[in-house]
Amino acid sequence: MGNGAKAASKRERNAKDSNTGGKSQLKSNLAAKTLICKNCKQDWQGTTNKTTLEQHVSSRHPKLKYEDCFDN
């Protein structure tokens, strides 16, 4: 048995042992979007810094204050 066959059989064994599925973070990223603008309903992850949110308010809603768009 050559090295190629050994590697293939090892991949098959490991695939049977681990039924973890994909390694996508899409679902967890969607769940982490906890900051929502009250006016336009755009959402951000909870780790977004305040300067980014202030920039959103000044560019999208220039007549409103930060407090009018976000609770935090």
Please, could you describe this protein's structure?
With 72 residues, this protein is mainly α. The radius of gyration is 23 Å and the shape is rod-shaped. 50% of the residues lie in helices and 6% in strands. The mean pLDDT is 87. It has four helices and two strands. The protein has a two-stranded antiparallel ribbon with strand order 1-2. The longest helix is centred in the N-terminal third of the chain and has 15 residues. The N and C termini lie far apart (64 Å).
Which descriptors would you attach to this protein?
single chain; 72 residues; mainly alpha; two-stranded antiparallel sheet; 4 helices; 2 strands; 6% strand; rod-shaped
Morphology call: rod-shaped
Class from helix and strand fractions:
mainly alpha
Numbering strands along the chain, what is their spatial order in the largest sheet?
A: 1-2
The run of helices and strands is HHEEHH
**Tally of helical runs:** 4
Got a strand count?
Answer: 2
- Rg over CA atoms, rounded to whole Å, is 23 Å
Report the mean per-residue pLDDT as an integer. 87
Helix content: 40-55%
Report the oligomer.
single chain
**Largest sheet at a glance?**
2 strands, antiparallel
**Portion in beta strands:** 5-15%
Q: List the uncertain runs.
A: none
> Kindly, what is the distance between the CA atoms of the first and last residues, rounded to a whole number of angstroms?
64 Å
